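Re-run with default settings, no changes from the original entry. Doing this only to confirm the output is reproducible before filing.
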Amino acid sequence: MFDTGISPKNPYYGNAVALNNDTNTLYFVDSSNNLRFLNLADPTSLGNVKYNAANANTVSIGAQPATGYREPALQFDNATFFADSYWYVVSETSVLKRAVIDAATQTITRIDTFNLVDTAGKPIANADKVSLFGDIAIDSEGNLFGWTVPWNGVATFFKVDLTPNSTSTIASDGSNLLFNVIKKTDNFSMQLAFAGTTLYGHRTGKAEWYTVDTTSGALTAAVASNGAYTGGFRDIAALFHAL
């Protein structure tokens, strides 16, 4: 356990955790919408990620529009780390962002933006309601999986191929990427993380853990609940993400 130095004085404390396994560095967003980092081998290393080497200020990496979401001050509900980058879907939008991070200096060198579109090439319909999170996770092949907060009692489990033109090249900044709905699913939110090739899901705020079938969205109980705790977690990141 590490003290992040952030006091949870209200519901809007840090979220959107992502782990760079190569450097053992945890990233998360605080209540002021700042991206923070912590080297897990050094609990005194808590700091702010910067935007380009010339700017010593903390970077604010996007804002969630306050359109009636029950926690409008919370900017992010999801994130994952892949290919030297911190990835996140801007909640309540059809926008995916990639913040490329120089691990040596903890500096964002650029931020790429991708448009999530349906099979007709149009932005996600009702994105302000459908695109609530939930969490995202990316496998070793560059496939992003996400599980949203329920809207009208139904959550969405989806997939986005980040390498649509090859098996190794991430799409260019400004590209349209297909928001592929795998399943309209259960009436609860899930936190996601890959451990090797297995996608795990943790029901937000509950002591429930599952493996998630990435082709169907089917859930299999991974850990039997023993009643020892009931709170659960707000976000997760896997220590054994296969890169």
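The two ends are 25 Å apart (CA to CA). The longest strand covers residues 107-117.
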